[in-house]
Design a protein that fits this description.
Helices cover 30% and strands 28% of the residues. By secondary structure, the chain is an alpha/beta fold. It folds into three domains: 63 residues, Arc Repressor Mutant, subunit A; 188 residues, 3-Layer(aba) Sandwich (Rossmann fold); 122 residues. Strands 3-2-1-4-5-7-6-8-9 form a nine-stranded mixed sheet, sandwiched between helices. A seven-stranded mixed sheet has the order 11-12-10-13-16-15-14. About 2% of the residues have low confidence.
Length: 399
């Protein structure tokens, strides 16, 4: 950590030049003594990344940006604040501190927060940023999380059985060669192996995992899962958040939420989904596409029964009705319901989606010479009578 980067002249330079090309800066000559072109470029890259992902960092002077790889792995401000809303108590330990985003965004929910990071450089950067942001109740610890957790972490007494209100961890999803992994047992630390040890010091554990993780497999491996939050931002699932409770053996509740909409979490149990009986109907006046979080959660029939909608096919996860309703996803007015005749469709430009359809979007575009864009939305679908249909739609804004 080069503290020269925190001087007022360099901070002023960073704030006045947010659009400078970091690559060009890294290849040039640094205008500041004691600071290399690469270090300056690294801070510019960090601020560029933070502009959309971490506005509270971007707008704050004195933030020291960690390496770009660490920022890419960190939570966004949206998802970090959401996780903070889910838990509270007296004491929290973040076992995989990293850039400290989640630690800071959860700290106001606890009296005392412990950040643990085995990379000493990253821990030093996080400690500085906590101070800048006013995270006065965060204690920084450098070292191996499990070793510290079993030792004198608080510098007052070892953590005894159940003495922590919450443990939080975000297992690393990259191997030493930087390739990505998605299975829990391949992450670092390997969560299924250490859960018994973690439950010795806390009855409540929050885990952040990749959105690629299979939910059923995650429940099987982690057990004691009380709730799973499928968190999307702008219709893209960003992370799965698991709330574990020691000794919990009942069914886990699923919460699907998109943080850029006004809708609250769509919540259901897998047993409710299994028992639900969604009605089927040919496309009517309006079409509904659930947000990505609901689809990832597997609420295919539950969303139909909850909103009194009809599915257009068992495996076509689109819904229809004769009236327009508020809905957690995209809404469309159906203008035409056409038989699919390749090469004979009257569309030159459209937004194309396929659902339960034998051709990919790329194939549909090529066979029918349809360019991307415009205000027309075409859904190529299989209907309840197994026929292939093209739904010509116009999108309805969620206002």
């Amino acid at each position: 950590m080069n503290k020269q980067l925190l001087t007022s002249d360099i901070q002023d330079f960073l704030f006045k030049n947010p659009d400078l090309d970091p690559l060009a800066v890294s290849l040039g000559k640094s205008p500041f003594p004691g600071v290399s072109p690469g270090e300056l470029a690294g801070q510019l890259s960090g601020r560029k990344k933070a502009r959309a992902k971490l506005p509270f960092w971007y707008e704050q002077t004195g933030i020291y940006y960690p390496p770009l790889l660490n920022l890419e792995q960190a939570s966004s401000e949206h998802t970090g604040r959401y996780k903070g809303s889910l838990i509270e108590g007296d004491t929290l330990v973040d076992l995989t501190g990293g850039s400290g985003i989640d630690t800071y965004l959860m700290c106001n929910r606890f009296r005392e927060v412990h950040y643990i990071e085995r990379n000493p450089d990253l821990a030093q950067i996080a400690a500085h940023n906590f101070k800048v942001l006013g995270g006065k109740n965060i204690r920084v610890h450098k070292g191996d999380a499990l070793s510290l957790l079993g030792g004198d972490l608080s510098q007052r007494k070892p953590f005894d059985h159940g003495s922590l209100d919450w443990i939080y961890l975000d297992p690393s999803r990259r191997k030493k060669n930087r390739s990505k992994v998605f299975l829990l047992q391949d992450c670092e630390p390997p969560l299924p192996d250490i859960l018994p040890e973690l439950f010795q010091v806390s009855e409540n554990i929050m885990v952040k995992t990749s959105p690629m993780l299979d939910i059923t497999e995650g429940i099987r491996l982690m057990q004691n899962v009380r709730a799973i939050h499928i968190v999307a931002v702008g219709n893209e699932v960003r992370e799965l958040v698991w709330l574990l409770q020691k000794g919990y053996t009942q069914e886990a509740e699923r919460f699907a939420v998109d943080l850029k909409t006004d809708f609250s979490s769509f919540r259901f149990f897998a047993s409710q989904e299994a028992d639900a009986e969604a009605p089927f109907h040919d496309p009517m006046e309006y079409l509904y596409e659930p947000n990505a979080a609901i689809l990832k959660a597997g609420g295919f029939k539950s969303v139909a029964t909850r909103f009194k909608l009809n599915k257009i096919h068992l495996n076509t996860h689109l819904y229809t009705s004769d009236s327009c309703i508020a809905f957690p996803g995209r809404r469309f007015k159906i203008l035409q319901n056409l038989e699919y005749k390749p090469g004979k469709l009257p569309f030159a430009k459209a937004n194309v989606s396929t659902r339960n359809f034998p051709e990919s979007v790329a194939t549909v575009r090529k066979r029918n010479r349809i360019k991307d864009g415009g205000e027309t939305y075409l859904f190529f679908v299989r209907s309840r009578d197994e026929s292939l249909r093209v739904l010509d739609c116009r999108r309805i804004d969620n206002t």
